[in-house]
Amino acid sequence: MSDPRLEIIGKRLEKVGRIIAVSSGKGGVGKSVVASTLALILKKEGHEVGLLDLDFTSPATHVILGIGDLYPEEEYGIIPPLAHGLRYMSITYYSLDKPAPLRGADVSDAIIEILAITRWGELDYLVLDMPPGIGDATLDVLRLVRGINFLVVTTPSRVAFQTVKKLLTLLDELGIPVMGVVENMVMEPSSPIREQVRQLGQHYLGAVSYDAGLEGALGDVEKIMDTAFADSVKVIAYEIEQRLKRPPT
Amino acid sequence: MHEWALAEGVVSTAVKIARAEGLSEITEVVVKIGELQQVVHDVLNFALEQLRKPMMKDARFVLETIPARLRCRVCGEEWRFSPEELSEEVSEAIHFVPEVAHVYIKCPGCGSPDFEVVEGRGVILASIKGVKNDE
């Protein structure tokens, strides 16, 4: 008895250059906004970029990007529609933004299904907006997606960073590449997170200052790209690109 | 899952199993299809015919539908999935991602969306038959 979906996931991703999983230890740290903005910046720099919202029970990227009336095209699978130049895939096409109360096993099945049916085509980058934590969805992505690179988002909060430490430890134990940690919503210039990330043997990618204007920009991509938040993510995106260009050590 | 994506997965999986089992030719592939996914058998058959590999050129594809049974985790009620009661839009959504059934279907006993699909959710390559390399 074999699940035929598992055989084609690798094929669906074979023309994707780099897969960046934007993850966090807990919710509410701005992971989805970082993921969405990072995807927009990479696109603006001339890359072909996809964005997959894997946070099935609390999807948010469609709100951040102001996705309107879009639906995937059906052709030997599913072709994600273009949203602001991004190949964009989300469960909200099918849940119609209604509550999707899914248990872990259902989340696993839905992830397998979407990875198996989605035809991304040629992409330079596929950004995954991961669900927070180290539960079923993260474990499934680690099991099913080869060549993944993690970008971990925290805030200066000790609570957020404690959960991030667990995620980083897990990724380290599994030998999964981590490009670095982004410290989001920084309000004090002397946050101890940079040093704590270094102590874990990980790379501190940068601080993103708390931007009071960001909330009002959500839903409007042009406004998002004009925020100080986006300027900070641009610096991080540049460093990510440089790190991904280097051969693995 | 879309029928073409499904057919692609069935063909790749059958070839992989055949190689692992030392088969030089596949003569039969049995696929069990959960009713929840509402796979159109004619489309799947057509896709399998188009995608079949040389080692399965004479293989028979047997498609079996497994009725979908749902059981409420809250009150224990068990019921049959009735696709005819769903709108076209909802049917299509469940066809592509069956888990969104939890968005649209509620327990007829207590109204909870917290049910399990006891049987008839996915698509499984149940068995293959073939000829061994040395036969």
Explain the overall architecture:
The complex is a heterodimer of chains A (249) and B (135). By secondary structure, chain A is of the alpha/beta class. Chain A has one domain: Rossmann fold. Chain A is built from eleven helices and ten strands. In chain A, the strands form two sheets. Chain A has an eight-stranded mixed sheet, with helices on both faces. A two-stranded antiparallel sheet of chain A has the order 3-4. In chain A, a hairpin with a 3-residue loop joins strand 3 and strand 4. In chain A, helix 2 packs across helix 11. Chain A is globular. Chain B has 135 residues and is of the alpha+beta class. Chain B has a single domain, classed as hypothetical protein PF0899 fold (2-Layer Sandwich). Chain B has four helices and six strands; from the N terminus they run αβαβββααββ. Chain B has a three-stranded mixed sheet with strand order 2-1-6, with helices on one face. In chain B, strands 4-3-5 form a three-stranded antiparallel sheet, with no helix packed on it. In chain B, helix 1 packs across helix 2. Chains A and B meet through helix 4 and helix 5 of A and helix 1, helix 3, helix 4 and strand 6 of B.
Which structural traits does this protein have?
heterodimer; A: 249 residues; alpha/beta; Rossmann fold; eight-stranded mixed beta sheet; 11 helices; globular; B: 135 residues; alpha+beta; hypothetical protein PF0899 fold; three-stranded mixed beta sheet; three-stranded antiparallel beta sheet; 4 helices
Helical content of chain A stands at 40-55%
Query: Which structural class fits the helix and strand makeup of chain A?
Result: alpha/beta
Look up the CATH topology of chain A.
Rossmann fold
Top CATH class of chain B: Alpha Beta
Radius of gyration of chain B equals 18 Å
Q: In terms of per-residue confidence, which ranges of chain A show pLDDT below 50 for 5 or more consecutive residues?
A: none
Kindly report the CATH topology of chain B: hypothetical protein PF0899 fold
Could you name the ranges of chain B where pLDDT drops below 50 across 5 or more consecutive residues?
none
Record the strand order, biggest sheet of chain A: 5-6-2-7-1-8-9-10
Order of helices and strands of chain A: HEHEHEEEEHHEHEHEHEHHH
End-to-end separation of chain B in angstroms reads: 37 Å
Rounded mean pLDDT of chain A is: 94
- Arithmetic mean of pLDDT of chain B: 93
The rounded Rg of chain A comes to 17 Å
Beta-strand segment tally of chain B:
6
Bulk shape of chain A: globular
